[in-house]
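Incident log, support desk, overnight shift.

02:14 A customer reports that sequence design results differ from what the structure should imply. Their input is reproduced verbatim below. On-call engineer (initials T.W.) acknowledged and began investigating.
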């Protein structure tokens, strides 16, 4: 057998093997359309940006914790926390459109901020102005019948009781 005939024969067997493989792959994919897990597209999500600034001067607040707690149709979608960048912005792209989101902002030295946000479109933005802690308001009354007075900062007790001195033995009992 000459070299041309041998090359033609090897070429035909490779081509026929490739054609057979292609037919098997095509027939397998045609059979699998009715079986297995059904693919469902992801729901549309919104781009939410929260800008956090200091309330007294409007400067951005870097490294503040922004917590998103999403609820959709009464179903809890979990909590997500994002830290603000140096410009005071925190962005998230995974909250579904139609969700109700509880947004909470926490930063050292500032009062915690919380607000409910309804995500009804493809984008949402929120500006938060953090303020210093203030006096707390209480519905409870102290023992004297007047409203409790709580001031911001570390609360010190009104009176300090000195510790008791340990008794010392001075001699033998008589």
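02:41 Re-run completed on a clean worker. Output:
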């Amino acid at each position: 057998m000459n070299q041309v005939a041998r090359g033609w024969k090897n070429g035909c067997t490779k081509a026929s093997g490739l054609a057979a493989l292609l037919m098997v792959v095509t027939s397998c994919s045609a059979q699998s359309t009715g079986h297995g897990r059904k693919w469902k597209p992801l729901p549309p999500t919104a781009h939410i940006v929260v800008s956090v600034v200091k309330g007294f001067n409007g400067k951005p607040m870097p490294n503040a914790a922004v917590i998103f707690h999403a609820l959709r149709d009464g179903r809890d979608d979990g909590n997500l926390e994002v830290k603000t960048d140096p410009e005071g912005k925190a962005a998230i792209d995974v909250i579904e459109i139609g969700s109700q989101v509880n947004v909470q902002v926490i930063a050292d030295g500032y009062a915690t901020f919380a607000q409910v946000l309804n995500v009804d479109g493809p984008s949402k933005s929120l500006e938060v102005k953090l303020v210093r802690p203030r006096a707390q308001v209480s519905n409870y009354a102290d023992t004297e019948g007047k409203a409790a007075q709580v001031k911001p900062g570390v609360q010190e007790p009104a009176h300090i009781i000195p510790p008791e001195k340990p008794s010392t033995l001075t001699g033998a009992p008589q």
